[in-house]
Write a structure and sequence with these properties.
Elements: E1 4-13, E2 16-26, E3 31-35, H1 42-50, E4 57-62, E5 65-66, H2 72-75, E6 78-80, H3 92-102, H4 107-120, H5 136-148, E7 154-158, H6 166-183, E8 186-191, H7 194-200, E9 203-208, E10 211-216, H8 218-223, H9 228-233, E11 238-247, E12 250-254, E13 260-262, E14 273-278, E15 284-286, E16 293-302, E17 306-313, E18 316-323, E19 335-339, E20 346-348
Helix pairs in contact: 3-4, 3-5, 4-5
């Protein structure tokens, strides 16, 4: 039996469904990310689990105990808010101690727990500093330590890295995962950053308009998106309209200009309209030959580790990315030919 279970959990404000029939099973020690654009319901889901938002209907159980209508203080969960919500008049040690004091833990036990937790988050040398004397990344680690020191069954993170600059944010992604693995706490994180979700999660819940549209391991989510929205939101992709053509020799998709793309059509019927998803890194430059696609480079962008090209073609404008291996890039406005392997294309139903 799963550790945390949400069954049909919904939250309505009048006729508006902020969260609609959320079904999610989380295993003990798992790291789950709720991913989606603003207003998709991910924060509402987190607040419902925390007890900060009463649900309209549905049921939530934690380790077999029904917590659907329990108040926040009886759920015993650890919460890290986007703003960290540290007490500015308290030192690092005092901030971390707060939850233990509320639980009436004796001082000598408290001091031991605080020392162990600050060592875990690499802040043992900063115990007597105040939040204003810390960097953004250090404040974030204080907030995590304060949430973890009470040994919560579940740690809830509400966009914990959004206030950090890009370089520190990337560093803290892996620091957060290191801490979570070390402690083994079941963790649910809200984020709108797909790279963040893919890099540190065991599974990702993609949300759109209050609903979970795909729950999957990061690799499968990226390589096998179930909808056009997911394909475009989780990483970059090229979306091409096409039509399924089935024959005795197999299935294909007919694209613009009659170009045929051999592909596994899955459950799509012959003649069905589909959207073909092609990731930019799956395309490559090649010599002119049968089956290649002629194009013209409109723009190129240097991204450090890779080059991104925008190429006009008979199929429309395509994005192609390739690793920066130190060689000279293809020039802008050059005429080129593109190709890709048959098995990298993914078919989804067109957006309604």
């Amino acid at each position: 039996m799963s550790f945390l279970i949400l069954e049909g959990v919904s939250k309505y404000y009048g006729d508006f469904g902020a969260l609609i029939d959320m079904n999610l099973s989380v295993e003990r020690g798992e790291f789950i990310s709720l991913l989606g654009p603003s207003g998709c319901g991910k924060t509402t889901t987190l607040q419902a689990i925390a007890g900060l938002t009463p649900v309209t209907r549905g049921r939530m159980t934690l380790d077999g105990r029904d917590i659907t209508h329990l108040p926040v203080n009886q759920r015993g969960l650890g919460i890290v808010f986007q703003s960290y919500a540290l007490f500015p008049h308290m030192t690092v040690a005092e901030n971390v101690s707060f939850g233990l004091e509320m639980r009436k833990m004796p001082k000598h036990e408290r001091d031991t727990q605080i020392a162990q937790m600050l060592k875990l988050v690499h802040l043992d040398a900063h115990a007597q500093r105040y939040p204003r004397e810390l960097s953004g990344g250090q404040r974030q680690r204080v907030a995590i330590a304060r949430a973890l020191v009470i040994a919560p069954p579940v740690l809830l993170l509400d966009e914990p890295l959004s206030n950090l600059d890009a370089k520190l944010r990337e560093e803290m992604q892996f620091e957060l995962r290191r801490i979570q693995r070390k402690v083994g706490t079941t963790t649910i994180m809200v984020t709108h950053d797909q790279a963040e979700a893919l890099s540190i999660s065991d599974r990702v819940v993609v949300m759109e308009a209050g609903r979970a549209t795909q729950i999957d391991a990061p690799y499968r989510l990226y390589e096998h998106p179930k909808t056009e929205f997911i394909s475009g939101f989780v990483g970059k992709t090229n979306l091409l309209p096409g039509r399924v053509s089935r024959s005795a020799s197999g299935s294909a998709v007919v694209l613009a200009q009659g170009q045929r793309l051999t592909v596994d059509a899955g459950e799509f019927a012959d003649g069905a309209s589909v959207t073909v998803c092609l990731r930019p890194e799956k395309l490559f430059f090649t010599e002119a030959a049968n089956g290649t696609l002629a194009g013209h480079i409109e723009e190129r962008f240097f991204l450090g580790s890779q080059w991104l090209y925008r190429v006009s073609s008979d199929l429309g404008e395509l994005e192609l990315s390739c690793a920066n291996d130190g060689s000279a890039p293809v020039e802008e406005h050059a005429s080129v030919h593109l190709a890709w392997a048959d098995d990298v294309a993914r078919l989804v139903a067109p957006q309604p």
